[in-house]
Fold this sequence. Notes:
Helix content: 55-70%
CATH topology: Outer membrane efflux proteins (OEP)
CATH class: Mainly Alpha
CATH architecture: Up-down Bundle
Amino acid sequence: MLFRFFVAAVAITLLTPVLNGQTIDWRDTAAVVAKALERHPALAAVDARIDAAGERTLSAGAYPNPMVMAGMQDKQIDLTNDEMMTMYMVGASQTIPRKGRREALRRTAELQVEQLRLETRSLREEIRRDVLLAYYDLAAADSQISATEQLAVAVDAIVAAARFRYEAGTTIQSDVIRAQLQRSNVEHLLLTYSGRRRVAASRLLAQLGFPVTTEIPRLQLAHATESEAIEATPTVPQDHPALATTANEVEQREQDVRLAKLIGKPDWNLEASYGMRPTEKDMFSVVARVELPIRRKSVIEPQIRAAIAERDAATQRLDEVRRRLLEALGMAWAQHADATRQLLLHEQVLVPQSKLAFDSTLAAYQSGRDVFEAVLGTETAWLRLEVDYYDYLAQHIKAITDFEALQRGARSGASGGGSAAALPGIDSETSASSMSSMR
C-alpha cells in the first residue's frame, strides 16, 4: 500500500508541469496573460503589503497605551519608615496627542494604502505587457523558422539545378558547392531562430511560473496582426496611476509639513498617582507635563523647511512623470508607425517582387539562360525580406502592446528599460521613517 502511494505521488509530481502546460490554449493570448496574472508573486506581494498597510491605518493616530506605575517612595536609607514621608503608591499616566497630529498620521496611513492599490494597477499592466512581448517574440521566431523552412525547399531546387547542369556539363563544380553552402547557411539561420525561440520561451515560461522544460507548441504571428492599429493619440490620461501615485506622494508630503508644524504644539501628558502612608493620611497627586518648544530655530523650523522642500520636490516630479510617460508613448507610437509602413512595403512590394525575381531567375538558370550568381542573389534577397517581414510584424504588435500598457497604467515604456520602478513613487519605508521622526 505504501509503495502504491509513493508511485502515485511521484507520478503526480512529474506530470504536474505537463498538465499545467496543457491547461493553456497557447494560441489564445488572453488565456496566457490570465494564467500569468493568476498567481504572480509580484502581485501577491503587493496584496500582502496592502493588507499590512490596511492594518496600520487602524493604529495610526490612535492614543498610545497608558503607563502604570507602582512602588514605594521616601524610604529611609536604614530601611526604616518615616511616618510622615514613606508611602506606597500606585498611579497611571497617559499621553494625549493633539487632534491635528492624529488626523495627519491617520491620513498618511490611508494614503499609503491608496498608493499600493495604484501600484497594483500599474504592476498588472506591466506584467501583462511583459508576457505579451515574450509571447510575440516567441511567435515571431516560430514564424521565421517556418518561413526559412519553406525557403529551404527553394534552396534545394537551386542545389538540384546546379547538380543537373554540372552533370550535363553546362556548369562548373563550384556552382554545386556554392549551392550546398547556401543550404548550410539556411540551416545556420534555423539554428539562430531556434535559439531566439528558446530565449523567448524561457522568458514566457518564467512569467507563467512553469518549468523551463515545458513544451510550447509552434506559434504563428498571423498576417492579420498587421491590421491592428493605435487609435489614440500619444497623450497621458489624467487618471493614469503613475500621475495619481505622484499626486498621492505630494499629499503625503503635505501631511509631513502639517506634522512638522505641530512640533510647536507638543502633546500633553497627564499623570495621576495615589500614595498610602500606614500611620498618616493617604495622598494623591495629579501632574500635567508638556514639552516646551523653545528651540524653534535649531529644532522646529529646520524640520518645517525640510518638509516643505520635500513637498515641493514631489510637486515637481508630477510634471516629470507626465513628460516621461509622454516620451514613452511617443516612442511606441513612432515605432508602430515605422513598422506599419515597412509592413505595407514588404507585403505589397518587396516580398512578392523578390519571390517573382527568384522564380524567374531560377527558371532561367535551369534552362541555361542565366548565371548562378543571379539565382543565388535573388534567393538571398527573398530570404532576407521574408524574415524581415516577421521582424516588422513583431515590432508592430509589440508597439501597440506597449502603447496600450502605458495608457492603462504602466509606469515606463518597454523600449526604455521596462523597470517597474523606473518612475518615481512612494517608498513606504522612507515615508514611515519620516512620520516617526515627527511624532
